[in-house]
Design brief:
With 295 residues, this protein is α/β, with parallel strands linked by helices. The chain has nine helices and 14 strands. Helix 3 crosses helix 9, helix 4 runs antiparallel to helix 7 and helix 6 runs antiparallel to helix 7. The longest helix is centred in the last third of the chain and has 17 residues.
Length: 295
């Protein structure tokens, strides 16, 4: 199916990376994860790191995706405007070493005054379609630090939008007046679902966030429920943005299953169905689809 020496792919993010070695049939033979994200790599060290990986995994085809192709990474792989297909990604691979090492480009939207970018998620979204994990015409959400909402038509990413939901949650828990109460993990339950409903219908996130403080002071919210309630507020606001840009019907949730579970519960609150796809499975499906087109 692939390069005679197999395939090594790295989902290389800002703070972390995940490495997968696949055999010529596309089966994962080895995987690992560490904190050597692109910002942890000193200038000029990427070639040395790649050579070290070749010593471990052999002389296979290396396909790198994510922030490794950003202006903070190794070599910048320019964004491709939507509409975007797998064929577009293959045609615009940034070959660091011809035939041996390539970086998958990201995607962008530049529609009038609205602009947006993604790196890495495009592999998962298109990979889920290529593997038959989601329909070719569907609205998708990739929850995370920067949640991505996208619309696919006939397997093509035609539009997407980013919402800083996860980053806002982290900032509120670390630096806001709610920080001392937001000590637990966010979980589905009455407080979470109340937050989703309030934020989705009120469309007044900043006011509702301060309202969390008032609820705590007046005994309307238990301190142990603060993180879940705030998470519900943020995800409810996230849904209010995302559902406005995707078609009716179920939403495909792709990513970490703990997060997709929370988003699935939130979608229940607002009357939408969801199907969940593991992000690692989708990423590998996308990388294998790219490798197949190079064979």
């Amino acid at each position: 199916m692939m390069h005679g020496g197999g395939l090594i792919t790295i989902d290389w993010g800002t703070t972390n990376r995940r490495i997968f070695a696949l055999d010529t049939l596309g089966n994962v033979t080895q995987s690992s994860a560490d904190a050597l994200g692109v910002t942890a790599v000193p200038p000029g060290r990427f070639p040395t790191i790649l050579n070290e990986l070749r010593n471990v995994h052999g002389d296979g085809l290396f396909l790198l995706a994510g922030m490794i192709g950003s202006n903070r990474g190794w070599i910048e792989a320019p964004y491709i405007p939507c509409p975007l297909t797998l064929d577009d990604l293959v045609a615009r691979l940034e070959w660091v070493e011809p035939g041996r090492t390539a970086i998958v480009p990201g995607a962008c939207v530049a529609d009038g005054d609205r602009v947006d970018v993604m790196r890495g998620e495009e592999v998962q979204l298109l990979g889920a379609v290529a593997a038959g994990l989601v329909p070719a015409d569907i609205g998708l959400c990739h929850p995370g630090t920067h949640a991505k909402w996208a619309e696919l038509k006939n397997g093509v990413i035609v539009n997407f939008r980013t919402v800083m939901t996860g980053e806002l949650f982290a900032l509120l828990r670390a630096h806001s007046l709610l920080a001392t109460q937001m000590t637990g993990d966010a979980a589905d339950g009455p407080a979470f679902r109340e937050g989703v409903a309030r934020s989705f219908h009120d469309r007044a996130l900043t006011a509702d966030l301060f309202g969390t403080r008032a609820r705590l002071l007046l005994g309307r919210l238990a301190p142990e429920d603060a993180a879940s309630y705030v998470s519900g507020l943020l995800i409810g606001a996230d849904l209010a943005v995302g559902l406005d840009m995707v078609p009716p019907g179920p939403i495909a949730l792709i990513g970490d299953l703990r997060l997709t579970g929370l988003y699935g519960a939130a979608l229940q609150v607002v009357g939408r169905d969801a199907l969940e796809v593991d992000g690692e499975t989708a990423f590998l499906a996308g990388i294998k689809a790219i490798a197949e087109k190079l064979a």
